[in-house]
């Protein structure tokens, strides 16, 4: 067990040293150095946890020992993560400031004038497009209004023709009804006259002599 712990610690130390050397060879900036330090601290925490975990299995209360070791590891890792987040935030701010500085350096008076001219040209083009769109919309509305007027006139004409035809049909029906009534009255008058003549003829007809009495 002792040989195992020694091997694990040796491996962790070698890993930390190798990580520090690689980071130093890659970058010499303060940010790179800080990242290397955080990475080394993580390796130390992992190595310590591995050693504590191995030692816990030799104790009577293994679970309590492991829980305590995990808690220490969790706290240490959380603190290193907080440091890393703070470092990343500082690095983002630094890079943002550098980018703004580069932009400001490139923004000469001539460049600013060109940008202003370009913005003015874009606004002018936009205004022209809006004017053309408004003109087209106006013409379209006029066309639709003219077509609507024509449709209305056509509808009025058709309605007038329909009303005139209906009036003619109504008059024709009235004339036909009047003719029927006239014919009916004429027929009634003729029948009444015929009846009267027949009755008069029957009243004026001479009576026949009575038959002689039998012998």
Q: Secondary-structure element order, as H and E? A: HHHH
| Number of self-contained structural domains | 2
Distance between the ends = 186 Å
Number of helices: 4
What descriptive keywords fit this protein?
mainly alpha, 2 domains, 4 helices, disordered N terminus, signal, Colicin import membrane protein
Give structural notes.
It is a single chain. This protein is mainly α. The protein has 2 domains: 2-96; 121-180. The protein contains 4 helices and no strands.
Can I get a quick summary?
This protein has helices at 2-26, 30-56, 62-106, 109-204. The protein is an all-alpha fold and 215 residues long.
Element layout with pairings:
Elements: H1 2-26, H2 30-56, H3 62-106, H4 109-204
Helix pairs in contact: 1-2, 2-3
């Amino acid at each position: 067990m002792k040989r195992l712990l020694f091997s694990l610690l040796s491996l962790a130390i070698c890993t930390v040293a190798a990580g520090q050397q690689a980071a130093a060879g890659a970058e010499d900036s303060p940010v790179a150095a800080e990242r290397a330090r955080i990475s080394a601290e993580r390796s130390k925490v992992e190595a310590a946890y591995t050693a504590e975990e191995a030692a816990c299995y030799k104790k009577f209360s293994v679970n309590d020992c492991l829980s305590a070791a995990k808690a220490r590891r969790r706290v240490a890792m959380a603190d290193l993560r907080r440091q890393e987040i703070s470092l990343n935030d500082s690095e983002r701010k630094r890079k943002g400031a550098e980018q703004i500085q580069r932009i400001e350096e490139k923004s000469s008076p001539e460049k600013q004038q060109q940008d202003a001219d370009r913005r003015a040209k874009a606004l002018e083009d936009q205004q022209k497009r809006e004017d053309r769109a408004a003109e087209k919309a106006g013409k379209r509305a006029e066309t639709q209004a003219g077509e609507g007027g024509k449709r209305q006139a056509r509808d009025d004409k058709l309605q007038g023709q329909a009303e005139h035809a209906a009036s003619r049909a109504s008059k024709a029906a009235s004339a036909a009804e009047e003719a029927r009534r006239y014919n009916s009255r004429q027929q009634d008058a003729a029948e009444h006259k015929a009846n009267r003549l027949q009755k008069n003829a029957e009243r004026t007809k001479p009576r026949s002599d009575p038959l002689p009495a039998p012998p």
